[in-house]
Amino acid sequence: MFIKQHTTQDKRILLAICDKEIKGQEIEEDGACLNLKADFYNGEEVSEETAISMIRTAGLLNVVGTRAIELIKRLGLAHEDETKKICNVPYILITLE
Fold first, then answer.
1. CB of 58 within 8 A of CB of 14?
2. Are the beta carbons of 56 and 65 closer than 8 angstroms?
3. Which residues pair with 61 in a beta bridge?
4. Residue 33 banded pLDDT, cuts 50, 70, 90
5. DSSP H helical ranges for the chain
6. Which of 5, 21, 62, 80 has its CA 20 to 30 A from that of 94?
């Protein structure tokens, strides 16, 4: 998976996480759009172990893709009913405190 780390104005860490298979795509459905071509998602490919370590330091998560969502669920940070889908691609926004 790919992760790009951002810092918000209030100094929290925001991670943009997406599956390797969908990085670089633009997914649209019914006026909703996930632009995975954007610089926002243009991070580095990381192992699951590194992803978990990074997630534990984050305050905000923007997660797109089946594998990335499954990791978030395994970590207990989200449940299936909290995810949304565009063209069958799951995504979720999470605030951690």
1. yes
2. no
3. 15, 94
4. confident
5. 48-55, 66-74
6. 21
